Amino acid sequence: MSVTATVPRRRRRLALTAGVSLLALAATGCSGLGRTAVGPVTYTTEREAVIQVNSPSVRGCHRIAPAGAHEVENGTLIDAIMYRTRDCTGGSTIYVPTGVTDVTAPGSEPWRSYSFVH
What we know:
Layout: H1 3-30, E1 40-45, E2 50-54, E3 62-63, E4 69-74, E5 80-83, E6 93-96, E7 100-103, E8 113-116
Signal peptide: 1-26
Keywords: Signal
């Protein structure tokens, strides 16, 4: 093997290694930014108003209208958890998988917030 053939191979390996390293760095640096639950969360309030939130953030607690909701449809690609409190706390929750609708039982408190399982 000649010296001239070895130099281009080293350059290619270095370029490939650098490219893979930059790609990995970019992917990890941007993975948590701006992630959304693609699709709508639709809910009906106690006064029969229909509210639709399109592609909400995956992170955090999402408040529902002050009157709360008695019917929720999770049209996103991520499962949700519904809470009876405004701050996504408390033990009275329900798991609403993607593509599923939940209706509260008659006489029970409305849903007041939700978060996503991620």
